[in-house]
Each structure stands twice: as structure tokens, then as C-alpha cells.
Write a structure and sequence with these properties.
Keywords: FAD, Flavoprotein, Oxidoreductase. The protein is an alpha+beta fold. Helix content is about 50%, strand content about 10%. It is globular and about 80 Å long.
Length: about 425
């Protein structure tokens, strides 16, 4: 495969080395005492001293225990379960709800956003696992549960003794699942009977509890239920053959007469899909941070490679077209950091809307898709080799681009907000 760096500069194709191990193998700079190279405008200055210390503690863990595992785990499409214990020891899962070691108040979203970006910078799949558990599952119980239900489930989930999943998407409903939900809930005395199917449910194969959303046959409202992962009548089948986010364990779920006690129906707040909508507003913002962290990694790996890779007697980092690619990547990362940070600030201030989070997700994910493609282009043929780093981010970006709302759906959410006219079609 031709190296684009060679093709652009002209001249004869150089002779390939006989020892391919001599080719550059760039690595992320995960030095906990330094800010990320990709944070060119120092957005991390928005964090307090204690927040920076926690971020650096996370970075040390990721460098020591996560980074060495992810290529092999990605290739085998398996989740390294030992990471659960490591994340539990970091005491981060309860931060958004005031259930962690930094005090009783919920952590600022700009801080938890940086945590998501840092995890995604090492591996987007691991960040997805963490986000599903802490954002979608815990967030649903926090937003939709009673105080008794919060106390029953969230402390153990914050300690990561109980792992959660979130069952919303269905085989026939992704973007329009709220309006066209086929999974049903029928009241039967002091129990509910769930019937239906869910798809793409991350963490489900090993989750202890799954928040299942179903349509109440009597009221037509969509309600949330906390269902044990081993509930009778629920079948969980891992989705195989993925080409992106392979470490994430996604599953198809079949619900056939699953009986859930009424005490396990989320009954705080509205107790309906309105609660899920509030959760998705936050997790969509988190997705913008995950997309930003992914492109930070792609940029840093491409920069490292360009400094090491020599053609025509000098590093390709000195070639004009390589510098152009790097600068475009850095511009995308910097703009994404700015939008994700400001959206987090608006959410913290109670001023963030669905449209704010939708625009952040659409923009950051679109810029991520460009950035990882440019990184793969710069690395040339070596960019499709898993061990050279860029390939995993290039593949995973395709899933990140689509989940937490596709580009098209997020665009229409923002379009409705700015024009006052809905372009959604039913």
C-alpha cells in the first residue's frame, strides 16, 4: 500500500524495510503531570485544583492498567472485566450524583466531561461502558426514581458493585423509539408484565440491573423499570461481528412475560419518558466529550507518528501537507473542546436545553469523523494496523457518530429550536 506522504512529495517509492517492527509505533502521552497535548487552548484551566488532581489520577490508571489491554480486547471483542475493580477504586462513578469521594454535591459537568474525554482518549469503548453505567443507567434512576429507589440502587452502583445497563432502543425503533415503542408493560396486581425486544443494549451481557423502558398498555405512557440482569423470561444475546466499539458488549434483549414488582417501577418525578429525556440531554452532552477525546487521541497519535516517520531523509512532520493535516485536526479538537465545555457550563447553570446538547453532539461527532480520517490518511498504510493506534479510533468513530442521536436527528432538534418549525415527519 502506497504511503500518501510519499505520493504527495513525488519521487520514487523507497524500498520497504525488511523488519516491520522498525516502523514507528506512536503512543499517547499519558504523563499525569502534563496536560493533554491536544488541549492547545488549555481548556483544562477551567478545572479546579482538586478536579485536576482527580483527572491526573485517572490518567495514571488508564496508562498503567487500561492502555496495555485495549488493542487485544478490541481484536477479541471482549470487555476486560478486571477494569471494573480498577474504576471502582478510583471512586468516580458517583460523582454526577454527589456519591463519590469529592463531597456530597454533584460534580460539575465540565469536570465529568473532561473525565469522559480522558477515558475516550485511551479507548472509546471503555468510555462507553463507563458512560452507560454512570450516565444512562444511574442517571435514569436518579432522575426517575423515588428517594427510596435512589438509596436502594445508586450507592452500590456508585461503588460499581452493581453494574447497570439502559434498555431503550428497539429493533424497529432508534430515533423514533419514544413515539413508536413496541415493548409493552401490563399491570397485573402488584406486578408489571413486560413483553418486547430491545437492541444495541450496551453492558447488558454482564449487567446486574437493566433499566427497561416500556409502553404502559393502559395509559400509553412510556415508563421505566429496573429489571435484574437474570430476570426470568429475559433472554440476552451478545451482538457479534461489530466493526466498531468492539470492546463494548452490546446485546439483543428478548422480554417474554418478564414480571417486575411495582416497587421496581421508576416512580419519582414524572415516572415517564420525560425523565429519560432529561437523562439523554446530559448523556448527549457526555457523548460530545467522548467524541472530543477520541479525536484528541487521533491527533496526538498522528503528531507522534509524523515526528518519527522519515521519508526522503527527514521526518514527514516537516512536509507542508502533513502540517496542514495536523493543523486541521488540532482546529477540530480545539473547537470541539470549546463547544463541549460551554454546553457543560450551560447544563450546570440550569440553562442547557436539548438543542444545546444536540448541537454539541452533532458538531463534535462530525469533527471527530474528519479528524480520525485525516489521522489515518497521515499515517498511510500503517494506519490500518491495530498496533499503530490510529486504526482503532478510526473504526470506533463510526459508532460514536451514530449513537446518542444520529447527526440527522440532532440537526433537526437544533433546527426546530432556531426556526420554531418542526421538520420531524411521523
Amino acid at each position: 500500500m502506497a504511503d500518501p506522504a510519499v505520493a504527495r512529495q513525488g519521487g520514487d517509492m523507497p524500498e520497504l524495510p525488511s523488519d516491520f517492527s522498525a516502523l514507528p509505533r506512536p503512543a499517547l502521552d499519558l504523563d499525569p503531570d502534563r496536560d493533554a497535548i491536544a488541549d492547545f487552548y488549555d481548556y483544562a484551566d477551567l478545572l479546579t485544583g482538586d478536579e485536576v488532581a482527580t483527572l491526573r489520577r485517572l490518567r495514571s490508571y488508564l496508562a498503567r492498567d487500561v492502555a496495555p489491554l485495549v488493542d487485544d480486547a478490541w481484536e477479541r471483542a471482549e470487555f476486560p472485566m478486571q477494569l471494573v475493580k480498577g474504576f471502582a477504586e478510583l471512586d468516580l462513578a458517583g460523582l454526577p450524583y454527589g456519591l463519590a469521594g469529592m463531597g456530597d454535591e454533584p460534580a460539575r459537568r465540565v469536570f465529568t466531561g473532561f473525565l469522559h474525554a480522558e477515558i475516550a482518549r485511551v479507548d472509546p469503548s471503555v468510555n462507553s461502558f463507563f458512560g452507560i453505567h454512570t450516565g444512562l443507567a444511574m442517571g435514569s434512576i436518579w432522575a426517575g426514581g423515588t428517594e427510596e429507589q435512589r438509596q436502594r440502587w445508586l450507592p452500590a452502583m456508585a461503588r460499581m458493585e452493581t453494574i447497570g445497563a439502559f434498555g431503550l432502543t428497539e429493533p424497529h425503533g432508534g430515533s423514533d423509539v419514544a413515539g413508536g415503542m413496541e415493548t409493552t408493560a401490563r399491570r397485573d396486581g402488584d406486578h408489571w408484565v413486560l413483553e418486547g425486544d430491545k437492541r444495541w443494549i450496551g453492558n447488558a451481557p454482564f449487567a446486574d440491573v437493566i433499566v427497561i423502558w416500556a409502553r404502559d398498555l393502559e395509559t400509553n405512557e412510556v415508563r421505566g423499570f429496573v429489571v435484574p440482569g437474570d430476570a426470568e423470561g429475559m433472554t440476552i444475546a451478545k451482538i457479534e461481528g461489530k466493526t466498531a466499539l468492539r470492546i463494548v458488549q452490546n446485546a439483543d434483549i428478548a422480554l417474554r412475560g418478564v414480571r417486575v414488582p411495582d416497587e421496581d417501577r421508576l416512580a419519582g418525578g414524572a415516572g415517564t419518558f420525560a425523565d429519560a429525556g432529561g437523562v439523554l440531554r446530559v448523556t448527549r452532552g457526555n457523548a460530545s466529550w467522548g467524541a472530543t477525546g477520541t479525536q484528541m487521541a487521533a491527533y496526538e497519535l498522528a503528531l507522534s507518528y509524523a515526528r518519527q516517520r522519515e521519508q526522503f531523509g527527514r521526518p514527514i512532520a516537516g512536509f507542508q501537507l502533513m502540517q496542514e493535516l495536523l493543523v486541521q485536526m488540532l482546529g477540530n479538537v480545539t473547537a470541539s473542546l470549546g463547544m463541549a465545555s460551554r454546553n457543560a457550563q450551560l447544563l450546570d447553570a440550569g440553562r442547557g436545553s436539548d438543542a444545546h446538547s444536540a448541537l454539541a453532539k452533532e458538531f463534535c461527532a462530525s469533527r471527530m469523523r474528519e479528524t480520525v480520517a485525516w489521522a489515518r490518511q497521515l499515517v498511510g498504510g500503517n494506519g490500518v494496523i491495530l498496533g499503530n493506534g490510529v486504526a482503532r479510533y478510526f473504526a470506533d468513530a463510526e459508532a460514536l457518530y451514530s449513537f446518542e442521536g444520529t447527526r440527522e436527528m440532532n440537526t433537526l432538534i437544533v433546527g426546530k429550536a432556531i426556526t420554531g418549525h418542526s421538520a420531524f415527519v411521523r
